[in-house]
Amino acid sequence: MSPVAVSVVLPAYDEQRTLSATVETTLDTLGSFLPDDSFELLVAEDGCTDDTPEIAARLAREDERVRHVHSDERLGRGGALTRAFRAARGETLAYFDTDLATDMGHLEELITSVRSGEYDVATGSRLLAASDAERPANRDVPSRVYNGLVRLFLRSSVHDHQCGFKAFDRAVLDDLLTDVEDDHWFWDTELLVRAQRAGYRVREFPVDWTPKGDTKVDFVRDVLGMGSGVLRTWWQLAVAPRITRRVTLVAGTLLTLFAVALMPQYIDISRMLAEIKTADPALVIAAALVYVLSWPLRGGRYRDILDELGYTEGLGFLTGAVFISQTGNLVFPARAGDAVRAYVVKTRRRVPYPTGFASLAVERVFDLLTITLLAGVVLIGLAGTGITSLSGLGATVAGGNQSGRVALLVASGVGVAAIVLVGAIVASARSDRNLVRRGMEKVSSDAYADRVAGVIERFVGDVQAVAGDRGAFARIGASSVVIWTLDVVTALLVFAAFDVALPLTTLVAVGFFAVSVGNLAKVLPLSPGGLGLYEGAFSLLVVGLTPVATPIALGAAIVDHAVKNVVTVVGGLGAMLVLNVSLTTAVEEGSEVEATPTDD
């Protein structure tokens, strides 16, 4: 037999009624312009639930030009095509939908466009001026909107990305498939977009197209899934390459400088600085010492978490690892220090990266829950006991500074998200069903959504592993409460250093609430170390709940945050010297594996 020049793939999912006729028509059409021994037809049968596999197997037995590529499980349209193309033997590869909605009179033009060497990729189009496509509005309008978004966000020159009538040069397709991540409907779009970005020659030509039966696209789940594919590809191609360490450092610095520049618009800077100078240094030093006490507790909590995940390490080493990672979060934006801890425990104690990231995620859950719990309990106490009035808070939020309002909104969102997250984990733990994956499948069925579901499943599993041991859960929970209580006590001592005229009960209640909300506000990586967010939320709440003036409240927040940051940096530098860790190297190495935390 002569070498196969052209391979045509038919993606087939539950096509028992049309498959035989489609194969016959395809073979006849190919034979009209190609020698019989120069092409092959592959039926990419994709985990069908009807008799399609048996029909495909029979057709392959009856004609040696037909091959059956079987899959027991559903791979998705893109996944089935990828698998079949990798099994194909031709140098020119093509596929079209099994319903033959595109007029087969265009097949020779499709194949020749690529086989001639003039183009690397060819695709039919239902949306060009010369196209003849009869589509109902409920299919035409969403398609035009989708293609418009792809052209806008992904800078594509193609008008119709989803027409199931395409051909590729084999070497080009092999190159593109190394980067294509989707395995369902967005597969076509991603291929065309990446082909254009790579500089390949793409031809789009008009076709005659007539709908045949109902579409297999779910206009809720699959359209949302394709939308997530657009966003993911836009991020990968347009945004991610520009987010270098230098860019993030510059952006974070500019945001901080902008926030500082706006401060004189809302507060009396000279008075604030004067208030800071009057702060009692003995109480500020006492606050620093109290904060130092929380760090061995942080190391002990991290030791308990790692122990539940199967790794036992020393308290001193783990306290140092926490110090280094938190220092990284202060120095670098986007919480880059989080990846540092996984790097440190991997390189110094051979704790695998998956465990390092999982332990960090578990720690974050306990932190968020504890802070939210403290804020919620104190808020209820404030409202119920009348220690101080909540009525002033609304007016302060309405008329307060922009950074404070943003911080309060961020804190509220993070607190609600923490509660919802734990509720989902508990529900998943008590159910035999995979609630995470079932929920994701209702929203989207593309590969990116499947990957996200896998990450969430792993994260939930790690949290449940810790929560499954009641003793460990109690120890970690109790240590979290003590850690954040010491954090609040540190702030209260700083606040007291400003000699505010408040009753002790009011000082303690408002301090707990303001510090808890301030820490919730800085969870999102909007600035290095949460600079500005913590101070904004803290001062906004203190001014809204007490008679304390804004310069005093903001001055106390700045000193409190500065004390904690100084202790963190000093401890981090000491730990880096003892453990011989370069923070820059740790950030770079840790960031590289953060995107793929399953690698050892």
UniProtKB/TrEMBL annotation:
Keywords: Cell membrane, Glycosyltransferase, Membrane, Transferase, Transmembrane, Transmembrane helix. InterPro entries: DPG_synthase, Glyco_trans_2-like, L-PG_synthase/AglD, Nucleotide-diphossugar_trans. Residues 7-176 form the Glycosyltransferase 2-like domain. It comes from the Archaea. GO terms for biological process: protein N-linked glycosylation. CDD domains: DPG_synthase. The keyword Membrane applies. Its main location: membrane. This is Flippase-like domain-containing protein. The chain crosses the membrane at residues 247-267, 279-297, 365-387, 407-429, 492-517, 537-559, 566-587. It is found in: Cell membrane. SUPFAM superfamilies: Nucleotide-diphospho-sugar transferases. GO terms for cellular component: plasma membrane. It is a multi-pass membrane protein. Belongs to the glycosyltransferase 2 family. GO terms for molecular function: glycosyltransferase activity.
